[in-house]
């Protein structure tokens, strides 16, 4: 057995992030493909059986959501109540489906291109229990909406409210409300609701246009830090093989376009992964000062993760004396939502700053130099301990 110490894990993470942040990795892009190829090679070098899997994706969220909100906004201007009702209902239904882990039927009519997932296997291939660790290697566009000054402003001026807050702002509520109000104005003839629907819908459309016009951020914390955990686990499992649990290390593409890569993984693999014996751990943005595990997530409907697996993860942190914040819920969505909705025991491991937000989230300062590598190493050790506990428990945590 070959022990991997924390200094080696940190060096591995630093080297990977330094190389992967040298080029853009937009969703479903050549940069994303290049990153997938590099990650696959690194995983194979550390003994994992790895491959790059090509899936289909649209690759943005600002086009589908922008078109839907613009349509609702223009419909709100129409005199015809039937137009407002019909377009508003259509836009609201398509929005709800697109942002909530649904079938994403509207974006299927938009141009599609290739996205690339990395799927690697380690651990005990014959074990009845499987744990899937999921990160993503694509990066987001920045936007004024994501300015780090916003949580800083709120946190510094309203510290008591920040301390009480356990859920991130529901930024998709007004986006969804615009088409809904437009539809209601068509049904009732309300001028006030018509104006509000128009304002919210067109305001949302302009916001999505602004996001689409921006460049891709380096994406070191979100989410090459999660990729570094996958690489660290492969290195650890090569030196200290585990029996009793099969380990899949998955780095998805097109997470930033609303989990399209994870949807592709689901189409290709969920049929062969029984929900009774498979557990998912989503590792996303673990390069902020303090690790945290979410209690639940969802842009419209909040979905809590199963308690047994959450407790297993927090128990692992306690055993290692790793601080792990509990109690937070995320009004956005991660790859964890796809496995959670499919019925798998799922947890999400992330990190936060003192303002209860990931450091440098979707901002040009999300560089390799600004990652807290102590948190990345701690996240790797936490996942290592979780593997050991699942192996020791045989069937693992119950759903």
TrEMBL record:
Residue ranges annotated for the Peptidase M28 domain, each copy included: 214-383
Signal sequence coordinates: none
Alphabetical list of Pfam families matching this protein: Peptidase_M28
SUPFAM superfamilies the record matches: Zn-dependent exopeptidases (SSF53187)
Protein's UniProt name: Unannotated protein
């Amino acid at each position: 057995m070959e022990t991997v110490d924390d200094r080696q894990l940190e060096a591995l993470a630093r080297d990977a992030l330094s190389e992967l942040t040298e080029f853009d990795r937009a969703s479903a892009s050549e940069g994303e493909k290049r990153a997938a190829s590099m990650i696959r090679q690194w995983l194979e070098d550390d003994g994992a059986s790895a491959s790059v899997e090509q899936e289909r994706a649209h690759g943005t969220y600002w086009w589908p959501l922008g078109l839907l909100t613009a349509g609702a906004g223009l419909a709100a201007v129409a005199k015809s109540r039937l137009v407002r009702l019909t377009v508003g209902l259509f836009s609201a239904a398509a929005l709800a489906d697109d942002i909530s882990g649904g079938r994403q039927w509207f974006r299927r009519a938009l141009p599609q291109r290739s996205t690339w997932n990395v799927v690697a296997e380690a651990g005990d291939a014959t074990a009845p229990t499987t744990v899937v660790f999921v990160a993503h290697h694509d990066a987001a566009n920045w936007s004024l909406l994501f300015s780090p000054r916003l949580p800083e402003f709120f946190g510094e001026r309203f510290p008591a409210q920040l301390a009480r807050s356990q859920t991130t702002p529901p930024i998709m509520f007004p986006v969804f409300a615009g088409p809904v109000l437009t539809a209601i104005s068509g049904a009732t003839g309300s001028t006030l609701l018509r104006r509000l629907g128009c304002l919210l819908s067109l305001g949302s459309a302009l916001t999505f246009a602004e996001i689409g016009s921006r460049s891709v951020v380096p994406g070191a914390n979100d989410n090459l830090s999660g990729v570094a955990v996958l690489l660290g686990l492969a290195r650890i499992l090569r030196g200290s093989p585990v029996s009793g649990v099969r380990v899949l290390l998955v780095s998805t593409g097109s997470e930033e376009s609303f989990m399209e890569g994870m949807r592709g993984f689901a189409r290709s693999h969920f049929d062969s992964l029984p929900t009774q014996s498979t557990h998912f751990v989503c590792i996303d943005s673990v390069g902020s000062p303090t690790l945290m595990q979410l209690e639940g997530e969802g842009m419209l409907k909040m979905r809590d993760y199963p308690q047994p697996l959450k407790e297993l993860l927090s128990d692992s942190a306690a055993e290692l004396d790793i601080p792990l914040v509990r109690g937070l819920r995320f009004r956005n969505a991660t790859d964890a939502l796809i496995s959670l909705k499919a019925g798998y025991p799922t947890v999400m491991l992330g990190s936060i700053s003192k303002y209860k937000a990931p450091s440098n989230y979707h901002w040009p300062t999300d560089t390799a130099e600004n990652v807290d590598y102590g948190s990345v190493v701690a996240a790797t050790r936490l996942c290592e301990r979780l593997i050991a506990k699942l192996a020791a428990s045989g069937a693992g945590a119950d759903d």
